[in-house]
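queue> pop job 88
queue> type: inverse folding (structure -> sequence)
queue> payload:
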């Protein structure tokens, strides 16, 4: 059986992005700062085991503007709070049914 998954990452400036889980994560694609927080998400069984809903950590929403064609564009990235290891464990979730079902907190703290 092979592993499928990704890593949720936050840089030292609070920018959120995904890593591929193969070795050390690349620097932040927004500001090139180092990664200071990581959370592994296992997708092997299609249940997003360990995923954290990042909306719970948002400190500042992304800035947006509407262009003359009516399209909304991001003008500045969202900023996220960097959780402690304990808070990370408290927020880890999974999807009890496959696909796009809602996340449910892990009850056993694994």
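queue> result:
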């Amino acid at each position: 059986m092979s592993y499928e998954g990704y890593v949720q990452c936050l840089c030292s400036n609070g920018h959120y992005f995904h890593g591929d889980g193969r070795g050390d994560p690349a620097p932040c694609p927004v500001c090139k700062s180092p990664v200071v927080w990581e959370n592994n998400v296992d997708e092997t069984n299609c249940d997003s085991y360990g995923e954290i809903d990042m909306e719970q950590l948002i400190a500042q929403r992304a800035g947006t503007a509407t262009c003359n064609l009516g399209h909304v564009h991001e003008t500045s990235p969202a900023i996220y709070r960097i959780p402690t290891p304990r808070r990370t464990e408290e927020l880890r979730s999974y999807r009890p049914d496959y696909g796009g079902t809602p996340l449910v907190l892990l009850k056993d703290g694994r």
